[in-house]
Design goal:
Blueprint lengths: L10 H13 L21 E5 L2 E4 L4 E4 L14 H11 L10 H13 L5 E5 L2 H16 L3 E5 L12 E3 L7 E3 L6 H4 L2 E4 L4 H11 L3 E6 L13 H14 L2 E5 L11 H6 L5 E4 L10 E5 L1 H4 L18 H14 L4 H23 L7 E2 L2 E2 L18 H15 L1 E2 L8 E2 L6 H18 L2
Parallel strand pairs: 3-15, 5-8, 5-9, 9-10, 10-11
Antiparallel strand pairs: 1-2, 2-3, 4-12, 6-7, 11-12, 13-14, 14-16
This protein binds pyridoxal-5'-phosphate.
The site of pyridoxal-5'-phosphate has 15 residues, from helix 4.
Length: 436
């Protein structure tokens, strides 16, 4: 599909993108934003209100990317905006403790039954990096087990994939990562308990932790059986390895206490990001008091941050999370999302289209298959061509999905039933073209 096929105008976005290429590698500050796997130039967004965003060419879209997950309350939420403005008037950062940090810490710990202490950082990547150091510091062991199809930010030792055959040592997926770092990571397929048991038998004595996205949502939505997560918990106890739930997406999203609460499984360490900052750069890691006691200045595991827990970011997080603890919030989000995707799914089934919409809470994914997908290797790369058409057709109709078929969609509290009905009609029309 060529550029000229576009019926909506993207001239201003195209011009800004051409300019951006002079300043930034690939014209962007985070790779997937470059629209490499969908058609046309990336949209330059200038405004967002509720569930709608407006680009520089004044096209409006119902947004299901929601800044990649943080905006569970939609764009420009009144309470967040007001709290940020009120806070920013007093200064942006002091590099000292501040009361808003206490308030956000208390709100989280009071409402999250699986953790006792938390440390704020400034991104999900930083949270994961710090959590790995903590796990290594606590156990005195160095290796990490991760799963193919889970993304944990751009931490060196986690930008790895499985090697060929039965070799489980990681092979880096990025240049610039020493082989010796990649070798510290063992990579396993999701949902295969036997493989995990084998690797633990061989490597548990040198393994600090197992890290998993309990709701893997960065490579499609690879919903796991609870029994697999429970198996991880039991094996970690048996082999004296720490379990890290990377809840940067699922935390405060599928539930206030995230996937841990959804599945009722307690990992040893959590990582958070995205929603926790209400749209500002915040990450965090958290655990029981004993484990967190290893962090400096209480303990020997060093971790610090110049802008960590700055008042503006804390104000945004606080204003967001206060709205999430309202009774029924998550039930409402899940019900709304389920109705939305089920309607489209029913339509597709009636038409005989091979597409399904796995979902959990307010996360959904468009999977061009009718099979249940639980691991990364089950995704057919050829289906990404169908996604490309869908993405294009949706943009023409005013619906924005993240620009890759491996990305999930997010429904926010600002998507009303009427917005979702409108989006569903457009989705159906776009799918008619995909399957024409
Ligand atoms: C987004 C994400 C990260 C990385 O967070 P950044 O804020 O982008 O550094 C880590 N883990 C998971 C599960 C994520 O979804």
């Amino acid at each position: 599909m060529s550029f000229e096929d576009h019926t909506i105008k993207r001239d201003r976005s195209a011009a800004l993108f051409a300019e951006a290429k002079q300043y930034f590698p690939g014209g962007v500050n985070s790779p997937v934003r470059a629209f490499k796997s969908v058609s046309g130039p990336p949209l330059f967004i200038k405004e967002g209100h509720g569930c709608r965003i407006t680009d520089e060419d004044d096209n409006q879209y119902i947004d299901f990317c929601c800044s990649w997950g943080p905006l569970i309350l939609g764009h420009n939420n009144d309470l967040i905006r007001e709290r940020v403005i009120e806070t920013v008037k007093k200064g942006t950062s002091f590099g000292t403790p501040n009361r808003l940090g206490n308030q956000l810490g208390k709100l989280i710990l009071d409402n999250h039954p699986y953790i006792e202490k938390i440390r704020f950082v400034s991104s999900g990547t930083e949270a994961v990096m710090s959590a790995l150091r903590l796990a290594r510091g606590v156990t005195g062991k160095s290796k990490v087990i991760k799963f193919e199809g889970c993304y944990h930010g751009h931490v060196d030792s986690l930008l790895v994939k499985a090697g060929s055959g039965l070799v489980t040592f990681g092979v880096s997926t990025s240049a610039g990562i020493p082989e010796s770092f990649a070798k510290e990571t063992l990579v396993l397929p999701l949902n295969q308990p036997e493989r995990l048991e084998q690797v633990l038998q061989q490597h548990a004595h040198e393994t600090a932790c197992i890290i998993i996205e309990p709701v893997p949502a960065n490579n499609g939505l690879l919903l796991q059986d609870r029994s697999f997560l429970q198996f991880l918990r039991e094996k970690c106890d048996e082999y004296n390895v720490l379990l890290i739930f990377d809840e940067v997406i699922s935390g405060f999203r599928v539930n206030f206490a995230g996937a841990a609460a959804h599945y009722d499984i307690r990992p040893d360490i959590f990582t958070f990001g995205k929603i926790i900052g209400g749209g500002m750069p915040v990450g965090a890691y958290a655990a029981g008091a004993e484990i967190m006691g290893h962090i400096a200045p209480d303990g020997p595991v060093y971790q610090a941050g110049t802008l960590s827990a700055n008042p503006v970011a804390m104000a945004a997080g606080l204003a967001a999370l206060e709205q999430l603890i309202a009774p029924g919030f998550y039930e409402g989000m899940a019900a709304k999302t389920s109705r939305f995707v089920s309607g489209i799914e029913q339509y597709c089934r009636d038409k005989g289209y091979t597409v399904s919409f796995p979902h959990i809470g307010s996360i959904f994914w468009v999977a061009f298959t009718n099979d249940r997908i639980v691991s990364a290797d089950q995704i057919d790369p050829a289906s990404m061509e169908q996604f490309k058409v869908l993405h294009h057709e949706l943009l023409q109709r005013g619906v924005y999905l993240g620009p890759s078929g491996y990305e999930v969609g997010f429904v926010s509290a600002a998507h009303s039933e009427a917005d979702l009905e409108e989006a569903a009609v457009k989705m159906k029309a776009a799918l008619d073209i995909v399957f024409k």
